[in-house]
Amino acid sequence: MAMTTSLRITPRALPLAAVAIAVLAAMLPLSGAAQTNGSTPKTPEQPAPGSAATAVSLNLEQAYRAALEQDAVIRAATAGAAARRERLPQARAQLLPNVSATASRFRNDLATTQPGFGGVPLHSEQMYNSGNRALTIRQPLYRPLNFADYQQAKAQVEDANATLDKELQNVAVRVSGAYLEGLLAQDQLALVLAQKEAYTTQLDAARRRFAAGAGVRTDIDEAQARVDMTIAQELEARQNLGYTKRQLQVLVNTPIASLATVDPDKLRAAQPAPGQLQEWTERAEQASPELRSLRAQQEVARQEIEKARAGHKPTVDAIAQWSVSDSDNVTRVDTKYNSKSIGVQVNIPIFAGGYVSSQVRQALAEQERIDNAFEATRRDLALRVEKEYRGITEGALRIRALEQAVRSAETMVQSNRRSYEAGSRTLVDILNAEQERVSAMRDLANARYVYMMSRIRLRALAGQADDQAVRELNGWLKL
């Protein structure tokens, strides 16, 4: 089944600047403004003289490495993972000995009234100091709640690591997408300018023919309408180029001067078969950060059930205490005590009003939710893997077909020009043929970028969108 995919930009995606220049060379003789070195026409997005020191030229790999350091999303994810990892030592601490020391010191004023001889009350007042010092060591021996919490903390750390890995995979996808969108906008502007130049040349030729009495007014009006349309398209293309560069600038946190363009020859030579679909699906199910995160959440849910059930179970602690007190009792003023004790403390829950049972039911429902979320994600992952896999396999075929379509469209333009000179075709036929060629070139450029994005997305789904994957795409650029 055929499948087409497009980038976020509408399919007005245009080919490389070099291809656009080839259009000019194949048309009627153009003015000296046509570029012959294959470079991209200068646009307002080129750095101004005063800002050239701050704007930089980047290839894809450089943009990716800059994003790893500068992208606020990945930095936030890294900090979030570091915070969540602290959950493990906190849970472990609940299983280790707890040592506490207390000390107190008071100044007491004791006023006493008691019956005397003959019923006359006797009053006395005494000032004295009292104090207490204690050292207590408590070692949990059996605490099912704390042990389940420790196991849960390990699963939560795994979830944090998987979530961070997912964000790292997304960085490669986001940077590649922003970079290719920038190239798409850059190529679109180049082709619009080339198309504008071609239509202007046709307009001038139509005016000369009309002035010489060999042409008609309709040819002038038709060519003028095409020129006016390309002017509007140029304004839109310049605006889109500035926006796409701004998107990439947000990721790398630096102004963008220019981007390395795609080399069609390198791309054509580097289209190996990606392997079997089933292999990629199995690889994704094993290594996908998204599924790893959900597996960890399943374990978290299971341990939450154990924590809830622990509310029905007793706890056992070993306790050792040494306390020293003096005058801590009004009947034993000026008396000191030195007490040492060691023993076991058992706490047995009896009835909590149904609170624990409710917690167990809640935890069971949460586990069912996570299990179903995992299954839904697993199925959706298989579908996304198939989509990107077909984007690669069918995309390679589509690129070759569109390359042939461009060649055929160029031949059609030449044929219409010769027929126009012979009087069997009109200027409108030439303009329409030219438009067909531009459409074919747009489709070809879009197919190339979709193919490249499918490569990086497929690797991201399988947990492989790393330096090597970005380096592979970067190797298809003109460095």
Walk me through the structure:
The chain has helices spanning 17-26, 60-70, 72-85, 87-93, 144-211, 217-252, 264-269, 277-287, 289-309, 355-422, 427-461, 467-474, and strands at residues 56-58, 98-115, 121-142, 256-259, 315-326, 336-347. The protein is an alpha+beta fold and 479 residues long. Helix 5 packs antiparallel against helix 6 and helix 9 runs antiparallel to helix 10. The longest helix is centred in the middle third of the chain and has 68 residues, at 144-211.
Which terms would index this structure?
479 residues; alpha+beta; two-stranded parallel ribbon; 12 helices; 15% strand; disordered N terminus
- Principal-axes geometry comes out as elongated
Main β-sheet: number of strands, strand sense, barrel status? 4 strands, antiparallel
Number of strand segments: 6
Q: In percent, how much strand structure appears in the residues?
A: 5-15%
- Low-pLDDT runs: 1-53
Number of helices: 12
In short:
The chain has helices at 17-26, 60-70, 72-85, 87-93, 144-211, 217-252, 264-269, 277-287, 289-309, 355-422, 427-461, 467-474, and strands at 56-58, 98-115, 121-142, 256-259, 315-326, 336-347. With 479 residues, it is of the alpha+beta class. Helix 5 (144-211) packs antiparallel against helix 9 (289-309), helix 9 (289-309) packs antiparallel against helix 10 and helix 10 (355-422) packs antiparallel against helix 11 (427-461).
